[in-house]
Amino acid sequence: MIGEPFLLRQALGNLLENALDFTSQNGLLRFSAERIGEKVELRLFNETTPIPDYALPRLSERFYSLPRPDSGRKSTGLGLNFVEEVVKLHGGSMRIGNVERGVEVVLQL
What we know:
By secondary structure, the chain is an alpha+beta fold. It has two helices and four strands.
């Protein structure tokens, strides 16, 4: 994959940190990567409660944040916005959705 290493590392770090914040103590995180033609598809599955429907379209909006389940604390709301911007800079797309038993983020680069 060709890209800006610093930005990609930061984006993947933000994505993983966000997933960890919303994973229960015994929850499962699964990360996978697959080459599909000229693109790379990265998937992060988080075994957690579903994201409320009202929040799904706003997750990558700058400064939008949901309270963390364990602490109720909110973040700056910049992490997923940064991830999406980096993905777009690399000609890709980001999709976040509820799936069976959790939430999945799909990045195509």
